[in-house]
Design brief:
Its main location: membrane. By secondary structure, the protein is mainly α. It is about 50% helix and about 5% strand. It has a three-stranded mixed β-sheet with strand order 5-7-8. The chain has a three-stranded mixed β-sheet with strand order 6-9-10.
């Protein structure tokens, strides 16, 4: 097991080492191997009964210290950029449960502690939901205010956004609801008027300047204080939930900076969303709050159950979709999702949604982000254009993934990646300069989607609803019959077509920059524009050709047959599904997001079609593609292994390699073991009976060896380099005057997973996926032959797929 994290020989060397040379570029952020912001790699909590004295036996003879008797700080923990041992962590948790259950029968106090332990998980979910909901509400309110700040300021109070500023105005007319005396554009404040070319240029200039200022602050804060706060965060969270450790990624600094810079990045007008980063923010909350509870602080597997629930909370507060959030965590990000986690995720998402609803950041007393109310049902024949939107979403998704990965790879391998601040400023300047002239790109992406989802009614003054022949008879409902498009509608169609091309291209280079950037909202915007354009086209087709066979029988003249807003909603789901490959959770999120429960079938048809088309053009979703780009050790459960190779073809050592480095159970000295550690970079060593027999006894981790030897030198008198190390149950008699031996059986895994050399690799891959193994030993007739690590499997799979096996960076 190769391990590039450290190769020191002492307990202290695992904590120190702050050299600037120990940095690596991952996901656009500079990662520091020495970072301990998240959870300290070594748990300093010693048991209260531990004593540093009393190591002498009768007659002053040094007593053999057994690590089974006293816990050693740091043993059983993991170093940075390594994978946890799921089997060991679950075993530790079962042992803890047995101990609590046994003690609970002995006294009332122990019973109370047992009840407290059982309740702690629900209490933690409550805290995660409250904290995430509060942060999300603050982010929504701040982003809305700062987005409007680019266009003007409220005279009643600069802290009011445009909508809140005009709520209390009595001089606002219905036709000009966005104009009120209390709200002044920058041109009105500076030159005194909002009309004329000079005022337009002034507003244009202020818009670009504010955008550049916000983006500069965002990228500067990320680079200076929390490099992990950039990007979406979902690829890294998927990897962390699979058992990988990235210390500091879910720490307090990352939470603080990501929350602030997310507001700045969204407000700058860049083509990005806040939904993916909100999942990262919620996971940071979950990880930080885990420190309050011992059973989550000291067990990495239990902590990942909390993070799975926190991911559900993130989507719940991002979209106001608690059920969709739970399904998103289950379908898209979680690696291990037991039934207990499902219940707790549901509870946490409920608390978060209630908290967000209490804050009411959208000011409409609704939890949903894009509430829609369509007045006409859909017809069966409309499934054809819905499926066409699904095909478009699949093609767009596959194009976006390939283009974005190619751009990100260019960023990583060329000088472009050396200037993150300049890149962000250039992209922001291009975005602002091109976005301002078009009203549909100037408005925030959430407002754009909301307008595209809207169904035109009698009270709508939108350009998209300005049809010709508006003198219609008012009916009981707010719906309007199909009617010919007017000049404003055609103008809006041209502007939307330009906005579609602009959004498709600029999102490719924006996602992955050194600022917090989500992908949900930009992808939905692309699909919503395409859907609205198709919807208007279908509406005009039905109006002018209602006698065609496809419209005859269900679309009579003067009827409200086609709903363009529904097409926008379906298109948004199709494009988001093509990019992320989500299915069930996406449909649930969309109907929770819009309140359009009766339109599930069109959403399902478009989402499924987009997935099929995108999978035909490329098997990976955007998050899996970024995981592979960054070299994370992630075994994708959706990827099938169809090659007929055996364990002996993948294991190390190969035929031309040096023999496997092993430790003999009773024949090596401290000096020999320390030499073995210094000369190799493996993360662990098999323990055998002897070099000749190669009969397997167990497996010991390098980290545990280093900590235990260093700890024994400090606490056990007489342990020197010639001291013998024993992994046997009973220590044989030692020659007189020999230094005291060191018994390390307590740190050895006595039941390592083994397979034979003729085991098919598809079975080995399944074992690694379903049990979360770090390594598996290969035997032949009971003799140790080699070892297979998770990294070896990923390299083998990459080689079989004609990809570069050296792209897998970590174990």
């Amino acid at each position: 097991m190769e391990n590039t994290g450290y190769c020191g020989e002492s307990f202290n060397s695992l904590q120190s080492g702050t050299s600037d040379e120990d940095m690596v570029e991952i996901a656009g952020a500079t990662l520091d191997f020495s970072s301990t912001d998240d959870v300290p790699p070594l748990d300093r909590d010693c048991s209260s009964g531990a004593s540093y004295g009393g190591l002498d036996g009768p007659n002053g003879v040094p007593k053999l210290m057994d690590l089974l008797d006293e816990p050693v700080p740091g043993v059983g923990t993991y170093e940075d950029f390594n994978t946890i041992d799921w089997v060991r962590e679950k075993s530790k948790d079962r042992d803890r449960h047995r101990e609590i259950a046994t003690k609970s029968k002995e006294s009332t106090w122990a019973l109370m502690k047992s009840i407290s332990d059982a309740f702690s998980g629900w209490l933690l979910m409550l805290l995660v939901g409250l904290m995430s909901g509060a942060l999300a509400g603050g982010i929504d309110i701040s982003a809305h205010w700062m987005t409007d700040l680019k266009e003007g300021v409220c005279l009643n109070g600069f802290w009011f956004n445009h909508e809140h500023c005009c709520w209390t105005s009595n001089e606002t007319t219905f036709q000009e609801r966005d104009k009120c005396p209390n709200w002044k554009s920058w041109a009105e404040l500076i030159v005194g008027t909002n009309d004329g070319p000079f005022a337009y240029i002034m507003n244009y200039l202020m818009y670009v300047c504010w955008a550049l200022l916000f983006s500069f602050l965002a990228v500067s804060l990320v680079r200076a204080f929390a490099p992990y706060a950039c990007g979406s965060g979902i690829p890294e969270i998927k990897t962390i939930l699979s058992g990988f450790i990235i210390r500091g990624y879910l720490g307090k600094w990352t939470l603080m900076i990501k929350t602030i810079t997310l507001v700045l990045a969204v407000s700058s007008g860049l083509s990005l969303g806040k939904e993916g980063p909100l999942v990262h923010v919620a996971c940071c909350c979950g990880n930080i709050l885990c420190h309050l509870f011992t059973k989550y602080r000291k067990n990495e597997a239990k902590r990942r159950e909390v993070l799975s629930a926190a991911a559900a909370v993130g989507v719940s507060v991002a979209f106001g979709a608690p059920i969709g959030g739970v399904l998103f965590s289950l379908e898209e990000v979680s690696y291990y999702f037991p039934l207990k986690t499902l219940w707790r995720s549901f509870f946490a998402a409920l608390v978060a949604a209630f908290t967000l609803r209490s804050i009411n950041p959208f000011g409409n007393s609704r939890l949903v982000l894009f509430y829609v109310e369509f007045h006409s049902p859909w017809h069966l024949l409309e499934l054809i254009p819905f499926i066409l939107l699904g095909i478009f979403g699949g093609i767009w998704g596959a194009f976006f993934i390939r283009a974005n990965i190619a751009w990100c790879r260019r960023r990583k391998t060329t000088r472009l990646g050396h200037y993150p601040v300049l890149e962000v400023l250039v992209v922001t300047a291009i975005t602002a300069l091109l976005a301002f002239p078009n009203s549909y790109t100037r408005m925030s992406t959430s407002e754009l989607i909301s307008e595209l989802f809207n169904d035109c009614g009698l009270l709508d003054s939108s350009q998209l609803c300005n049809y010709a022949n508006m003198s219609v008879t008012k009916t009981n409902s707010n719906a309007l019959p199909d009617r010919p498009a007017g000049h404003d509608v055609y103008t809006a169609i041209w502007q939307l077509s330009l906005a579609l091309v602009f959004k498709m291209l600029i999102t490719v280079v924006t996602f992955g920059m050194k600022v917090p950037s989500g992908l949900f909202i930009p992808s939905m915007a692309v699909g919503a524009i395409a859907g609205r354009l198709l919807g208007v086209g279908m509406e005009q087709l039905a109006y002018y050709h209602h006698d065609w066979i496809i419209f005859r029988g269900w679309c009579s003249p003067g009827a409200d047959c086609i709903t363009p807003g529904l097409y926008a909603m379906v298109g948004a789901a199709a494009c988001l599904g093509g990019v992320t490959r989500m299915t069930v959770s996406l449909v649930v999120i969309m109907f929770e997001l819009t309140g359009g429960l009766e339109y599930i079938v069109p959403l399902m048809a478009a989402t499924m079609t987009s997935k099929w088309v995108a999978d035909a053009l490329g098997r990976e979703g955007i998050y899996e593609a970024h995981i592979r780009l960054n070299g994370y050790p992630f075994l994708e459960s959706k990827e099938e292994f169809s090659h007929k190779t055996l364990a002996m073809d993948v294991m190390r050592p190969r035929r031309c390699d040096p023999p496997l480095s092993v430790i003999v159970q009773d024949g090596m000295s401290v000096e020999e073991v320390e030499t073995l550690i210094a000369e190799t970079s493996y993360s662990g060593f098999p323990v055998v009976v002897s070099h000749e027999s190669q009969r397997l006894v167990g497996f010991v981790l390098r980290r545990d060896l280093i900590i235990s030897i260093d700890n024994a030198r400090q606490r056990q008198e007489g342990v020197v380099s010639p001291s013998r190390i024993f992994f046997t149950e009973y220590t044989p008699p030692q020659p007189p005057n020999s230094p005291p031996p060191l018994k390390l059986r307590g740190i050895m895994d006595l039941s390592p997973f083994t397979v034979t050399d003729h085991t098919a690799m598809d079975i080995v891959v399944d074992i690694f996926r379903k049990l979360g193994l770090r390594q598996c030993l290969v035997t032949h007739n009971g003799r140790l032959l080699g070892i297979i690590t998770k990294k070896d499997i990923l390299k083998h799979m990459a080689q079989m797929a004609n990809r570069d096996p050296d792209s897998i960076l970590f174990n």
